[in-house]
Design a protein that fits this description.
The complex is a heterodimer of chains A (82) and B (302).
Chain A lengths: L5 H13 L21 H15 L5 H6 L3 H13 L1
Helix pairs in contact in A: 1-2, 1-4
Chain B lengths: L2 H12 L1 H13 L1 H19 L3 H26 L7 H9 L2 H17 L1 H14 L8 E5 L5 H9 L4 E6 L2 H13 L6 E5 L11 E7 L8 H11 E13 L13 H10 L2 E9 L13 E9 L6
Chain lengths: 82, 302
């Protein structure tokens, strides 16, 4: 697995809020197939919540191509550093 | 394996976030969904060759993601991101790679979006099925060309002239026409549809999802009326409170499109307004697609 990402810990509460599941845990390997209700609409809801929390703005091409939570965390990390 | 089965397998394996929406569209009308997969995606496979399903489905997923993100920002901001043609021209219309992806993505929405599958059914039943056998069709902003080519496919004696400002559109529409075996009856010209002269000799006009991209939507309905022979019919679709990176005219009510058509001298025969099966949580706006079946009036009072 990749390096520890500060963003990952901060992402978990956002996932729980968007998917309305207090027990939900996420790792870098988590994909849409692992989370009930993670479809194209909840994905955008999640992205907008992340934008607000981290004060970043995604490009739409970035949003569409994310494969798993690890890629999402890496992207957040890159955008918060830039 | 059928084209529909290949399509579904690819979406499920590669784009699990898009699976639910595609399933919903197929559940609405499985026979029609599968038939469009064979026909429309079949043309794309012949046009693009190996990898066509991946190419077009990836483009569809990216396009849908763009739309959903734009709608989310619209919900937050209360307005479309852009309001002028100039703002979106460089970013979208003039960018060849962006336009190619965009057009293939839009092409598949005709049956992969549940509400656009409804529009496709309405288009076929109420417009295409009533066309004269040897109809002379004009298509304004054909984009991928799929709407007009579907009409030609169903009406073997019809001919079509299409006009679009995008070189990508002209290339893709021509490639699909060749793949569909319809190139001898479909011609496409790189031209701003709003500059078309009022020839008044077309039996029918097709113009889907252009009006919300325009700064002067009233002009479009004037061009449609001018292109048609008296009594000629038009099929026009537009987006209402539905954001997209290149949507600049925000229609809020169905009556706005009806009024524009009537003011241009077009009688509104039928309309269909449809929205997606699901929207963003807490959304204030219902994004709709509206289609109008119009007829150029034949006397002073309709």
């Amino acid at each position: 697995m990749g390096r520890a990402m500060p963003a990952l810990d901060e992402l978990a509460p956002l996932f729980r809020q968007v998917f309305d599941d207090d027990e939900l845990t996420v790792t870098r390997a988590t994909t849409a197939a692992d989370v009930e209700g993670w479809d194209s609409l909840t994905h955008v809801t999640l992205m907008l919540a992340i934008e607000k929390r981290f004060k970043i703005r995604f490009k739409s091409s970035q949003v569409a191509s994310l494969k798993d939570v690890g890629e999402l965390a890496d992207l957040i990390d890159a955008l918060t550093r830039s | 394996m059928t084209v529909a089965a290949e399509l579904l397998a690819y979406v499920k394996a590669r784009h699990p976030r898009s699976w639910r929406g595609v399933e919903e569209a197929r559940a609405l009308d499985t026979a029609r969904f599968d038939a469009y997969a064979e026909l429309l995606l079949g043309w794309a496979i012949r046009a693009l060759g190996d990898g066509a399903i991946a190419r077009t489905v990836d483009a569809f997923v990216h396009f849908t993601s763009d739309v959903n993100l734009a709608q989310g920002r619209y919900e937050a901001d209360g307005r479309y991101e852009s309001s002028s043609y100039r703002e979106v021209y460089e970013a979208v219309y003039a960018d060849r790679a962006t336009m190619d992806d965009y057009l293939w993505g839009v092409y598949l929405t005709n049956f992969l979006w549940v509400h656009h599958l409804e529009i496709s059914a309405f288009y076929e039943a109420r417009f295409v099925a009533r066309l004269p056998e040897r109809a002379r069709l004009v298509e304004l902003a054909p984009g991928h060309g799929g709407w007009g080519l579907l009409a030609l496919h169903r009406r073997p004696g019809a001919t079509l002239a299409g006009f679009d400002i995008s070189p990508s559109s002209i290339d893709i529409a021509r490639s699909l026409a060749r793949a569909a075996g319809l190139a001898d009856r479909a011609s496409y010209e790189l031209r701003d549809a709003l500059t078309l002269p009022a020839a008044g000799d077309a039996d029918a006009c097709i113009c889907n999802f252009l009006v919300e991209h325009l700064e002067t939507p009233a002009r479009l309905f004037e061009v449609i009326a001018g292109a048609l022979a008296p009594g000629g019919r038009a099929f026009v679709s537009g987006a209402l409170t539905a954001a997209q990176v290149d949507h600049i005219h925000e229609f809020r009510r169905e009556s706005e499109l009806v009024l524009l058509a009537e003011q241009a001298g077009l009688r509104v025969l039928e309309t269909l307004s449809v929205g997606p099966a699901r929207t963003l949580p807490g959304a204030r706006h219902l994004p709709r697609s509206m289609s109008l079946l119009l007829q150029r009036r034949t006397r002073e009072h309709w």
